[in-house]
Design a protein that fits this description.
The protein is an alpha+beta fold. 43% of the residues lie in helices and 21% in strands. The chain has a seven-stranded mixed β-sheet, sandwiched between helices.
């Protein structure tokens, strides 16, 4: 019998899931980042304490923090460097950021409404052409590579004119480890494609992604008709499917699988040093009523593709982008989604991605 094999810690885990199922369902958002933080705040503080922190030193005048009690958390999908090299947290702590040692290919702003009844994940294409302080016009993801988390936050704040209250960085391996912990993440691939960079064929139909295949799925750009936009759609689709599966009763009530899901993230996560355990506890409790249906994915609008000295870039539709982030600032993103419909590039179904 499984129950006879459970340790005291396992029984505590199972009890926590029963008491806080709604909280856990919500906090699986974005590779369980908030689940790790919120859940750990209740019964795994030692895991939270082990998550590396980075101190942010954002230069220049920053946008004002929201006064309407909404919250913006900047998310980065990044690599944590070559084997044997410094982690992101260690490089920041040492005070010497090595340009090019770490890259961020996924940029998302998590907006939580003031009433905590809705969450929006806003993807910013990595090739968006912007000004990076000290480096001129660059692809927006160059900010992380050149200057680390602080320049990354500064650049996103300048582009969006929004204050980022917190930062969470997930190593790319987190996608792989989460998929494995879930026993595979199921996605739908609508068309055949070939990723020439990794020599892998993707075939139309349902796919169960485990291990490195999950990583290849969320990172693919080559062979996709819309390049970075299709990759963003894949990442959002992966997150939505992972959220749904992680919230499944079988995963929530299986203490071993639940701990594996948490471990998949805690081992691949870095957050800002101002994100204290008490802040996390308060945030987790305020989000306890949120459900998967209350999460909307949006992608920043583009005007066109262009070739610049830094390579192929995306010229953002500045007018619509300002409208998007203005509605974030006023905590009224429903107005933006209602106005632009499919042009808002929302993803609320699983069968419309590459």
């Amino acid at each position: 019998m499984v129950h006879a094999m459970l340790s005291e810690d396992d029984e505590d885990t199972r009890g926590f899931v029963r008491r806080h199922k709604a909280l856990v369902v919500l906090l699986v958002i974005v590779l369980l980042i908030l689940a790790v933080l919120g859940g750990g705040a209740f019964y795994l503080n030692r895991q939270i304490d082990s998550i590396p922190r980075v101190a942010l030193k954002v230069k220049g005048e920053r946008p004002a923090a929201p006064t309407n009690h909404s919250m913006n958390i900047l998310l980065a999908g990044a690599d944590n460097g070559a084997a044997g090299g410094n982690t992101i947290a260690k490089e920041v702590a040492d005070g010497h950021w090595v340009s090019g040692s770490h890259r961020s290919d996924t940029i998302m702003v998590l907006h939580l409404t003031a009433d905590r009844k809705h969450a929006y994940l806003i993807s910013i294409p990595r090739d968006t052409y912007v000004t990076v302080s000290g480096y001129g016009k660059q692809k927006i993801n160059a900010a992380f590579s050149y200057g680390g988390p602080s320049l990354y936050v500064q650049t996103i704040e300048q582009f969006s004119q929004l204050r980022m209250q917190h930062l969470a960085i997930i190593d790319w391996n987190g996608f792989r480890d989460l998929a494995t912990a879930l026993g595979g993440v199921q996605v739908y691939v609508p068309d055949d494609s070939y990723d020439s960079a990794n020599d892998i064929h993707w075939h139309k139909g349902e796919q169960t992604l485990t291990g490195n295949k999950a990583l290849l799925y969320v990172r693919q750009r080559h062979g996709l008709a819309n390049g970075d936009f299709d990759r963003i759609a894949r990442q959002q689709n992966f997150l939505r499917s992972a959220l749904s599966q992680a919230a499944d009763k079988g995963n929530l009530t299986n203490p071993i699988r639940f701990k594996n899901m948490l471990s998949a993230i805690t081992h691949n996560l870095t957050i800002d040093s101002a994100f204290s355990n008490s802040d996390v506890r308060s945030l987790a409790w305020s989000l306890r009523h949120l459900r998967a249906k209350d999460i909307t994915f949006v992608t920043c609008p583009m005007e066109r593709f262009a070739d610049e000295q830094v390579g192929s870039v995306i010229i953002p539709d500045l007018k619509q982008t300002r409208e998007l982030f203005s509605d974030v600032a006023t905590d009224d993103l429903d107005a933006y989604v209602t106005k632009y419909g499919v042009n808002a590039r929302t993803l609320n179904a699983a069968n419309n991605v590459s």
